[in-house]
Structures are given as C-alpha cells and as structure tokens.
Description:
3-stranded antiparallel β-sheet, alpha+beta
Amino acid sequence: xxxxxxxxxxxxxxxxxxxxxxxxxxxxxxxxxxxxxxxxxxxxxxxxxxxxxxxxxxxxxxxxxxxxxxxxxxxxxxxxxxxxxxxxxxxxxxxxxxxxxxxxxxxxxxxxxxxx
Length: 116
C-alpha cells in the first residue's frame, strides 16, 4: 500500500526557485538568516495570493509550487491560521528543514507563474 502523503504549496520568488531547480526539483534550499521557520501553505488559493501580492512586487515575478510530503513526517506539525480562514500554513522549524526535504515524495512542481 502506498504511503499517505500531504500536499503542500509554496509561493516563491525567482531566487529560491532557481535553487529548487538546481536540486532537480527535489529539495528546498536551507533557510536564509532571519526567518527561523519554513512555512509552506495548505492550499493553492493562499499560495496564489502570496505569490501575486508579495513575490511579484518584491522580485518582479512569483511562482506557486506544489509538492507531496510523507504524512507521517507532517503529523507533528499543527496547521497555523495566520489571517482569514483559508490563510493556513505549517510552521516547520529551520532545524527540521533537512528532514522535510528527505520526506518529499516525487518532485516539486511549478503550477503557476506571474510577472509584474
């Protein structure tokens, strides 16, 4: 029986996406100094909103990615609500980042692209 997975979405800018591409679309780069949390979101709508409202103005383009992670590795994290009802995300500590990458099933796929 196939292992159960959870679908995660990540809005991202071109610099982070280039690092994902360099991994063969199999891993997220280590967290930059500053944010101690990697925060993929739970739904495509919220990821679209962030990509359009934050990534495009910040870097001239924005992307929405989708990837699958083993459910067993995500079960220890609670979904956080950070605004409206659909503004939900996981808060994964930077120290757990490598473990998250090890539990990605398949590849990270770009499902939307936006330019300024």
